[in-house]
Amino acid sequence: MTVPSVTLASISRAVRAGLAPLRADPPMPLSTWAEQHFEMDEESSHRRGLWEAWPIQIGWMDAFSNDDIFEVDVEKAKRVGYTKSVVAFAEYNASHRRRKQAIWQPTDDDRDSFVKSEITPSFDICRALDPVRRHDRDDDTVRFKRFRGSVLHLLGAKAARNFRRITIAVAVLDEIDAMDTVVEKTIDPYTGAVGRLEGAPFPKVILGTTPRHKLTSHIRRRVDAAEAVMEYQIPCPHCGVAHPLGYGQLRDEVSEHGMLWDDDDTASVRHVCPHCRHAIAQGDYLAVWAAGRWISRCGRYQYDHVRKIWLDGSEHPRTAPRHVAFVRAWTAYSPQRTWPDIVREFIEAKKAQKAGDSGPMQGFVNETLAEVWEEEYEHTDASVLRKRAETDLDIPLHVVPAGACKLVMGIDTQGDRWEAVTWAIGRGEEMWPIDYRVVYGTPADQSEWADKLDPLIKTRYRNVHGHDMTLDGVGIDTGGTNWTHQAYNYCRTRNHFKVYATKGDQALGKPIKMKPSWVDVNSTGRTIKHGVKLWRICVDTAKDLLYGRLEQVRKPGSGYVHLNRNLPPEWFDQLTAEHRIRIRQAHGWAERWVCPSGVRNEVLDCTVIAMFLAQVLGLHNTPPSTWALWEARLEPDLFADAPDKTPAQPDAGFPASPAEDHEPMPGTASVTPPPVVKARPPLQVPQQRTVMRRTGGIGRR
Ligand SMILES: [Zn+2]
Predict the structure, then answer these.
(1) What is the C-alpha separation between 75 and 53, in angstroms, rounded?
(2) Which residues surround ligand 1, an ion (CB under 5 A)?
(3) pLDDT, mean over the chain
C-alpha cells in the first residue's frame, strides 16, 4: 500500500518538530557559547550586540560549564564582570544544556533587583532563549522561570524554606559572604544549596562574592578547601616570568614590587615585577593581559583560555580539579578602572583610617582588593574566664549563693535539643551561673515541649542557707522556622510559670527589652491577634553589657559576673563565642557582635535571655529597701525546725509545685534535679553532675 507523498512529508515534519526539543547541541564551553549567543544591550556592546569576555572572565566561565568540576569559588572585587558571567550561565543552562538551576541572592530584595536589572533585560534580548522560553504568567515570575526542559529558581537566602523542596542540577550562591552564617538557626547556605543537588548526574555549585569579614566569610572557608586555588598571572614584558598583579603599597608601605607610586602622586603608579623589578604601566598590562593565564598556587593546574584546556605545570593536558577557586580577581585587572583611581581611593581610605574611621579602608580591602577584612574590635578570651572561675567561690552547681535573690533561666532551641542556663541575680545585677542543662529531643514535635521543658521550668534550687527557690522568669527563644509554631503553643499555655516567648532582634542601639508584639499563628500558619506576646531582645545591646561587665567589672559587687569552676569548659567557650566586628549593612557600616561560622554560642544566647528577664523583673531599678526585704527572707533560718513557711518568693507568681509533680523526665532520670525537700535541713550540697552523657537523653555532644 502506498502512502501519498504529501502525508509522508507531513509525518516527517511532525517527527522533526516532535524531536526538536530532544536534539542536543554539542556541548561547548560557556565562553564559546557566550561569544555566539550572549547579547548585550546596545550601549555596552563592543560588536554587534554580542558580549566579549575578558581574559580573566573566561577562566571561571569555562569552569562553570565544565562537567568535571563540581565546585567553583570566585573571590572577586566589584566591577570585574562577574555578575554578567552568572547571567550568561543561566541562559546557557536554559537554552544549551537544559539544566534545572537556582540562583540565591542574600535577601529577597537583592533577588528582586538582580532579576529586574540583570536577568529580565538580558533574557529579553537573548535570541538563543526563544525556542525554550515560556511566557505564561505562572511560568515567568520574579522567583521562578520555566523553560522547555528546565527551570530557573531565583531565591533569597534569608529564609530556610528557600533551601528546601526544589531539585536542581546547578546551584549558584551569589554574594555568599553577605548571607547569614546560619540561616534561621537551621542550615548554612552552602550546605543548604548543595543538598538540593542530590541525584543530579553532573551536580554543580558556584559561589561568587566580594569577600567580607574573615570571621564570617563563607568563601574563605571554601577557598581553603579547594584543590586548586587559581591566580591570574601575566607574563612580564621585560623578563617574561609570569606573576599575578600584586597589591604592593596598597597593602604594605615598604613593598618593593606590586603597585608602587611616589608620595601622593597617583599618576606615578606602576606595577613592579617581583622577579626583575622592572615596572609596567596600565597600558603595558592591557597589552599582555590576554597572554596571561589562571595558574594554581600549587603549580599543578593552569587553564589555557585560548585552547580552552586544563594543563599541568609542564603544559601537558590534564583533568580539571573537582573543586577550583579563583581568587584575587581584584580591580587592577579590570580595564574599567584606572590604576591612579585605585591609588586615590586607597589614599582617602588611609586618611579616614588615621582619623579613626576604618569603614572606607574595609570597603577598599573587600571591594577593590577582593580580600577579607581581619580587624576585630573586641573579644573576650574563654581561657581568661576559666582562670578567673578558679578564683571565684567554689560553690557546687545548683546551689544559690548568698546575696542572690532572683533566679532566671534562658532556654535556647536548636534542631535536636534545648539548652538552658540558669543565672542567680542579686543587688546591682550581680550574677552567678548556677545551672546548665542540655536536653535532647525534637523541637519540631509539639508533644516533646511539655515532656522535656516542663520539668526544667519547674526546677527548684536551694540556697546556701537551705531555702528552696523557684524560677522568677523563664525566656524561650522562638527563632528558627522549624519550631516557631510549637514554641508559641508551648509559651501560650505557660504564662502562670512566668514563661516568656522571646526572639533576638538585629536592631542596634535599642534597649535590651524592646516593645513586645502580639503574634501567634493558627493551624494554617496565619498570624492571629492576642495569642502569644513575643518579646524582642536587642541582642547587641545585651552583649555589649555582658562583655563590658566581664571585661571591666573586676571585683564582686554591683555589675559583677561570677563564674563557676564546676561548669564544663565548653560553657566558657560558648559564652565568649562572639566577636565584635564592623560589617557592611544596607545603610553603611555598623559594629556588631557576630558568631564565627561553625562555632557554638548557645550559652551566650541563654545568658542574653537571662539578662532580658532581669530587665523584665525590673532588677536594674529595684530600690535597696526591696532588696533588703528579699535578702532577709533568704537569710539563715534561726528556727530551722519550725514548720515550713510560705515560699520565699511572694511576688514571683510562680506557684510552688507539689513535690509529686516533680517526676523524672522521660529518659532523663540521670539528671533529675535534687529532690525537693520541704523541711530545710542544714545545707546538703547536691553533688551530681548537671551535664551528662547523651545516653541519658541529656548531655553534651
Ligand atoms: Zn619581570
Answers:
(1) 18
(2) 236, 238-239, 273, 275-276
(3) 86
Residue 698: pLDDT band by 50, 70, 90 thresholds?
A: very low
Cα of 260 from ligand 1 centre, angstroms: 15
Q: How many CB atoms lie within 10 A of CB 184?
A: 17
Q: Which pLDDT score, from 0 to 100, does residue 17 have? A: 60
Question: Distance between CA atoms of 384 and 419, rounded to whole angstroms?
Answer: 24
From ligand 1's centre to the CA of 239, what distance in Å? 4
The CA 266 to ligand 1 mean position distance, Å, reads 22
pLDDT in tens, 552-577: 999 999 999 999 999 999 999 999 99
Cα atoms found within 13 Å of the Cα of residue 532, Cβ hemisphere only: 26
Residue 325 Cα to ligand 1 midpoint, Å, equals 26
Confidence of residue 674 (pLDDT cuts 50, 70, 90): very low
Report the distance separating Cα 431 and Cα 407, nearest Å.
10
Max intra-chain CA distance, the chain: 118
User: 388 C-alpha vs ligand 1 centroid, how far in Å?
Assistant: 56
Helices (H), 185-316: 189-195, 218-224, 282-288
Residue 241 Cα to ligand 1 midpoint, Å, equals 6
Predicted pLDDT of residue 485: 87
pLDDT in tens, 92-113: 999 999 999 999 999 999 999 9
pLDDT digits (tens, 9 = 90+) for 381-416: 999 999 999 988 889 999 999 999 999 999 999 888
Helix (H) / strand (E) element for 409: namely: strand 404-414
Query: Which residues on neighbouring strands pair with residue 582, listed in sequence order?
Result: 591
Per DSSP, the residues of 322-365 read SEEEEEEE-GGG-TTS-HHHHHHHHHHHHHHHHTT--HHHHHHH
- Is residue 295 scored above 60 in pLDDT? yes
| Ramachandran angles phi, psi of 501, nearest 5° | -85, 125
Strand order across the beta sheet in which 265-272 lies: 258-262, 265-272, 279-280
CA distances from 543 to 182, 209, 434, 504, 512 (A): 19, 29, 20, 11, 9
* DSSP H helical ranges for 553-591: 569-575
